[in-house]
Amino acid sequence: MDTIRAMREPEITTLPGGERVATEPLRGVRSVALGLWIATGSRDEPPSRAGVSHFIEHLLFKGSSRYSAQDIAELFDAMGGELNAATSRETTVVYTRVPDDRVEQALDAMSDMVFAPSFDDVDSEREVVLEEIAMVDDNPQDLVHDLAAEAVFGQHPLGRPVIGSADVIAGVSPRALRSYHGGGYVGSNVVLAASGHVAHDRLVELFAAQRTGANGASRVRRSLLRRAPSPGYRFLRRKTEQYHVVLAGPGVARDDERRYAASLLDAILGGSASSRLFQEIREKRGMAYSVYTYGSQYAETGQVGIYVGTREDNLDECLSVTAAELRDVAAGNLRPGELARAKENLEGRLLLSLESTSNRMTRLGKALVTDAELVSVEETIRRLKAVSEEDVAEAASAFFAPERLSAAGIGPREGRFRAAIARANPALAERA
C-alpha cells in the first residue's frame, strides 16, 4: 500500500483550444513518460478510408515541418529514450519515455511530428504498411481476431481491422491523408499525458507554446452501435497445423459498472495461469499451447472473447470443455477461493503496473482521451473487492450465453470447425 500512498492526484489543465494536459507526478524517479493522445481511431473511418488512422500513425515518423525522419531517430537515440506509437479502434497515441532533463526537447519533436507532419514520403511508407497487412494475413493467431470482430459487429466499423484494407492503403492519396489528419488532430481531441518527475505548470507552458495559433473543429464523426447484430460466423480455410478458434460476443462499455465483474470473470476463465481454461485445456489435458480469454471496452459497447489454438484431433474436446466451464460459472458454481484469488490477481497486477511511469501515463491519457471515468487506484480496488459471486455468475450469463456467441476460425476443414462450434452455440452452427 506504500505505492498507493505515494501517489498524488493527477493535475489537469485545458488549453484555450480545448487540448488537455494531464500529469501524475511520481517521486523517486528520473524519467518522464509522455504521450500525445488523439481521439480518433479505426472506428471513425468511413469504408473508403479504412486504415488511414494507422497509416497516418506511421507517417508521423517520416518527417515534420522542422524535423526529418533521421533527425527524429537520432534525437531520441541520443536521449536514450523510447519513441513509439499505436492505433486502436478509438485512439491514436505517440509516446516516449525520456530522462527528466530532456522533456522539453522530446515534447518539441513529438508536437511537430504529431501536428505538422510533412507527408512527403507517403509511397515508401505505403509499401511498409502493405507489408504489415500481409504479415497479419500470414499469421492466423492474429488474423482470427479480426475475423472475430467482424463476426461480432458485422459491417459496423468496430468489425473492421484496425490495420485497414490493402485496397484502401494502396490507393489513398497524400491529399486525403492530410485532410483526415487535419480533421482529427485538433482541439478537444488532443490530450498530452505525462507521468514521472514532471512539473505540471511547466509542461502546460511548453505545450501551450507549441499550440499557439492552433484552431479548427474536429471532423471526426463516430458511428455508435445502436444494437449488436445477431451472432456471426466466419471461417477462413488455410492449410494450418492447428485450428485457430475464437468464440466472442458483445461485452461491456467503458462506463458500465459490470466492468469489474467482467474483469474478474476474465481472470477466472482464462486470464491467468490458474484460470479454468488454462488449467483444464493446457495443463490437465495438454490439448493446446495457447488458450486465453480477453476483453475490450469501447464507448457504447465492448467485446469479450476466448481464443484456443489446437490440432484437429483435439478441437471437439477443447470446445466441449470450454462450453462446460462457461455453463458452470454462469450457474454460480465458483470453487472455494476462486473469486478471492482472482481479486488478489487483479489487485497485484494493478499495483505492480504502478511502478512503471509508462503504465501510469497510459492509464491517465487513455481515460481522458476517451472521456472515461478516471477512477483512483484505491477506488478501483474497492470496487473489485465489492464484486460478489452472484455478480460474476450474472456476467457469465450475460456475456457468454451460448445464443450470444459468435465464432471465427482458421483451419484446413470448415466442416470440422462447424461441428466443433456446435458444442458452444448449436444454433449458430446449424445456421452456418
What is the strand and helix layout of this fold?
Elements: H1 2-5, E1 11-14, E2 20-25, E3 31-38, H2 52-59, H3 69-79, E4 82-87, E5 92-99, H4 103-115, H5 122-137, H6 140-153, H7 166-171, H8 174-184, E6 190-196, H9 200-210, E7 233-237, E8 243-250, H10 259-269, H11 276-284, E9 291-297, E10 302-310, H12 312-330, H13 338-353, H14 357-369, H15 377-386, H16 389-399, E11 406-411, H17 414-421, H18 426-431
Parallel strand pairs: 2-6, 7-11
Antiparallel strand pairs: 1-2, 3-5, 3-6, 4-5, 8-10, 8-11, 9-10
Helix pairs in contact: 4-9, 10-13, 10-16, 11-12, 12-16, 12-17, 13-15
Molecular structure report:
The chain has 432 residues and is α+β, with helices and mostly antiparallel strands. It has two domains: 2-210, Metalloenzyme, LuxS/M16 peptidase-like (Cytochrome Bc1 Complex, Chain A, domain 1); 233-431, Metalloenzyme, LuxS/M16 peptidase-like (Cytochrome Bc1 Complex, Chain A, domain 1, 2-Layer Sandwich). Helices cover 46% and strands 17% of the residues. The protein contains 18 helices and eleven strands. It has helices spanning 2-5, 52-59, 69-79, 103-115, 122-137, 140-153, 166-171, 174-184, 200-210, 259-269, 276-284, 312-330, 338-353, 357-369, 377-386, 389-399, 414-421, 426-431, and strands at residues 11-14, 20-25, 31-38, 82-87, 92-99, 190-196, 233-237, 243-250, 291-297, 302-310, 406-411. The strands form two sheets. A six-stranded mixed β-sheet has the order 1-2-6-3-5-4, sandwiched between helices. A hairpin with a 4-residue loop joins strand 9 (291-297) and strand 10. Helix 4 (103-115) packs parallel to helix 9, helix 12 crosses helix 16 and helix 13 runs antiparallel to helix 15 (377-386). The chain is globular. The protein starts with a helix and ends with a helix.
